[in-house]
């Protein structure tokens, strides 16, 4: 049985370093026997999470679609920028809404529970998005995800990619390769859909 991996960039900006890093991860995983797909959060606009909105109108359809995609995966790779040493609002809001989905097609679900998650970040700064990933890690662990210790950081991302979108730094390239391998190996050993 194939391992299903979803890649989720946490940025909408077309020139985003994190979207480039997500593309590189997709290229690496696509040459394995895993089934890899990518979700673009621009295709799933959501209101800012508000408990009153949820009580009044329920969980938005787009949040249900995202939760359904996540619940069908063996692994998730989040590639996120760092905003003010934390999670970008787009990603946090998406996680918050998706975590509120309790049923998918009439079946009980907790989209993040038991899900193997890898984290990566590219940043113009010297820490490569480290602090933002630590914040993402805390949130996902609270939701029951199996968040890998291995992660990929690309500091000084303005110089981090060549004209074809490939990583130019050997350490960053090796880190991404190791992260992708660990994500697949762990997902295969802890598969939720076997």
From TrEMBL:
Residues 4-157 form the NADPH-dependent FMN reductase-like domain. This is NAD(P)H-dependent oxidoreductase. InterPro entries: Flavoprotein-like_sf (IPR029039), FMN_Rdtase-like_dom (IPR005025), NAD(P)H-dep_reductase (IPR050712). GO terms for molecular function: FMN binding; oxidoreductase activity. It holds the Pfam family FMN_red. One of its GO terms (cellular component) is cytosol. SUPFAM superfamilies: Flavoproteins.
């Amino acid at each position: 049985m194939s391992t299903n991996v979803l890649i989720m960039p946490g940025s909408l900006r077309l020139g985003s370093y994190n979207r480039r890093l997500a593309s590189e991860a997709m290229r690496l995983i696509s040459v394995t026997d895993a089934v890899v797909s990518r979700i673009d959060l621009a295709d799933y606009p959501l209101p800012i999470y508000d408990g009153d909105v949820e009580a009044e109108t329920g969980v938005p359809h787009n949040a249900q679609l995202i939760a359904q995609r996540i619940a069908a995966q063996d692994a998730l790779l989040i590639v996120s920028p760092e905003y003010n040493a934390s999670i970008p609002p787009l990603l946090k809001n998406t996680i918050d809404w998706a975590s509120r989905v309790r049923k998918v097609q009439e079946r009980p679900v907790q989209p993040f529970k038991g899900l193997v998650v890898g984290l990566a970040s590219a940043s113009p700064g010297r820490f490569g998005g480290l602090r933002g990933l630590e914040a993402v890690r805390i949130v996902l662990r609270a939701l029951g995800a199996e968040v890998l210790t291995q992660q990929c950081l690309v500091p000084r991302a303005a110089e981090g990619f060549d004209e074809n979108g490939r990583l130019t730094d050997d350490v960053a390239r090796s880190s991404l390769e190791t992260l992708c391998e660990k994500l697949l190996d762990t997902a295969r050993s802890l598969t939720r859909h076997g």
